[in-house]
Amino acid sequence: MNDLPIDEKTLREELTKLREFLAQPNSYADDDFANKSRRAAELENLLAKIDELAKLSRNLADDEAIVKNSAKDPENSNDENNENDELAELAKSEIPELTAKIAKLRETKSVKFTACHPGLVSGSSKK
Description:
mainly alpha
């Protein structure tokens, strides 16, 4: 998700702080409890999408490398060539699906919206 203006490290740090706050026994008494709880849920959703996008991007890169390197090596046995060809065909068939999933994740409005609205980590009350 490097092409979107999202600072993943900052978001993960914010989520950690929110989780620490929410884990405290008296956190429910804080005026911002509901807002902080909601923000934690938003961040969990956003970071799950970021993680999914990273995984899909790695899978796409792997599949593209397999397809690129699928040229037959005359020194390999026929069985090995068949296995390589099957793997390359499988990788090739996955590329359009992975590309579509990546595009859909990148276009998800909630990803862009949440990334643009900093959370309520500070101790100040906001409503």
